[in-house]
Write a structure and sequence with these properties.
8 strands; membrane; single chain; transmembrane; transmembrane helix; ExbD; 156 residues; transport; 6-stranded mixed β-sheet
Length: 156
């Protein structure tokens, strides 16, 4: 006896459409929420005390002087009485020649830099100077130059 309404044998299988949809949604979620962060400086900065006494000159061989005009624009830089103009690449080259580009040995904290600025100098120039003296990226390696940075009282 033949049954007329019998359908062909149905295949029992998993519908992968919803699984693929979820995988793509997760992929899009993680791609959109992933944040690429540039290398940020880990600055060891010490601010001057309110009634600060003068520091011992033997502790501080490197001094960076940043001069500004009335509008706060950088007009000149000098490191240990060497005039550098306003070029931060020249500042980095000067630091590399003084420090040698060698990372401090374990136990040795490396050189310390004192930044002396005019009172009205804009912060962007101070940050650019800190970036120039703290190190640079050589390919995939980070070359650290000066990690200890402190500030002198701003000049009026």
């Amino acid at each position: 006896m033949k049954i007329r309404n019998q359908k062909d044998a149905e295949k029992n299988g998993l519908d992968m459409t919803s699984m693929i949809d979820i995988v793509f949604l997760l992929l899009i979620f993680f791609v959109m929420t992933f944040k690429i962060v540039e290398m940020e400086g880990d600055f060891s900065v010490r601010m001057p005390l309110a009634g600060g006494a003068a520091s011992d000159p033997t502790d501080l061989p490197l001094k960076l002087r940043l001069r500004a005009n009335e509008e706060g624009q950088l007009t000149g830089m000098s490191m240990n009485e060497i005039d550098l103009g306003t070029d931060f690449d020249k500042l980095r080259g000067n630091v590399v020649s003084m420090v040698g580009g060698n990372a401090p040995v374990a136990g040795d904290e490396g050189p310390e830099l004192e930044i002396d600025t005019d009172y009205n100098l804009r912060y962007e120039y101070v940050i650019r100077a800190i970036t120039a003296v703290s190190g640079y990226k050589d390919g995939d390696q980070v070359v650290k130059l000066i990690e200890k940075i402190k500030f002198a009282k701003p000049r009026r």
